Amino acid sequence: MSASFDQGIALELHKIAARRPHGDFLRPAAQLRIADHLADGPRSGTELADAIGADPDALQRFLRACAVIGLVAEVGPGRFENTELGAALRSGTVLHHVAIASSCPALRRPTEAMADAVLNGKRVIKQVLGVDRIWDYYSSHPDEDEHYAALMTVLSERTGDDLARVFDLSRFSRIVDIGGSSGVLLTRLLEAAPNLTGAVFERPAYQEAATALFAERGLSDRAEFIGGNFLDGVPGGADLYVIKHVFCDWPDEAVAKVLAHCREASEPGAVVLIIDWVLPETTEKTTKGGVAERFAGEQLHLQNFIQLLTLDGKLRTWPAFRDLLRSEGFEAGGYTPFSEGLNYIEAVRR
Ligand SMILES: C[S@@+](CC[C@H](N)C(=O)[O-])C[C@H]1O[C@@H](n2cnc3c(N)ncnc32)[C@H](O)[C@@H]1O
């Protein structure tokens, strides 16, 4: 899978994915490999139906819906070509996986039981996916896990670059990225700070992808993968623990546990750098920031509920983060927005 992609197109894809029913068309378009079949130029719906082995009428209707969304353009009656966005979904690309991940069962099915979640205040994943934790589901559905990892890669690539621009990494010597997926954030940080070594601490399922990425980026001598469960402990020896988009997946008790492990594993003065959404205290719409920030801002209250469905997770306000950190022996002075609606919180171990 090629890890490079256009950031603007990725954002456009996220916007489509967030709309219904528009977002529902992304996964089948990628599964049917429409982009691949149009790679050599415009084709009629009938030619495409032959190539794909599809029902001609159903495909024509599907393609016209895709044209409305912007995945293809109808260049003459019943004749279609790739748009720039559609072409970006060709197979073998990270955005192909993102398109599939956007409406995979793991992310979509839990919404069927939203009312139950409201009534019971508990995650509904057991009744819709038959597992207790989403990570158990991904462990037994490696294909879906691969699509999900691609989604996280796309979300994290720019974060790494943006963080390296605003956060001084040179004062540290070793990073551990807790729940660091297949390593894209760590690679971006290590590339920006040649004096650092680092490790991704993750579920063992990501070992192969992460080590391949480290090798591809020429970082095998500075980056390693450590498999494990952050609820049981975290690796010692780091002075910077990065934890991005992880605490939003967990209830307070679990977050407190991970912070306590970071404290046990580190020396006074070590930093836990939380990179996450910070929930606004009201639903007042923001007009500040660029398109990406505004889009992200509007999503936060939706996301805050969605985190409950599969994970018992939640978004946190700044005071909620501050109090959790304090209770586990960390001090933080505030949060800094720095990348597409994301913030960092630098918490120092007392
Ligand atoms: C929302 S993803 C965030 C990934 C990455 N930090 C990013 O932002 O791209 C949460 C990650 O936590 C990992 N994870 C979940 N439970 C874990 C556990 N108990 N121990 C270690 N990693 C875990 C998942 O595999 C997943 O990659």
UniProtKB/TrEMBL annotation:
GO terms for biological process: methylation. Keywords: Methyltransferase, S-adenosyl-L-methionine, Transferase. Pfam families: Dimerisation, Methyltransf_2. Residues 26-89 form the O-methyltransferase dimerisation domain. The keyword Transferase applies. Residues 114-331 form the O-methyltransferase C-terminal domain. CDD domains: AdoMet_MTases. Coiled coil: none annotated. One of its GO terms (molecular function) is O-methyltransferase activity. It comes from the Bacteria. PANTHER family: O-METHYLTRANSFERASE CICE (PTHR43712:SF2), PUTATIVE (AFU_ORTHOLOGUE AFUA_4G14580)-RELATED (PTHR43712). This is Dimerisation domain-containing protein. The lineage of its organism: Bacteria, Bacillati, Actinomycetota, Actinomycetes, Pseudonocardiales.
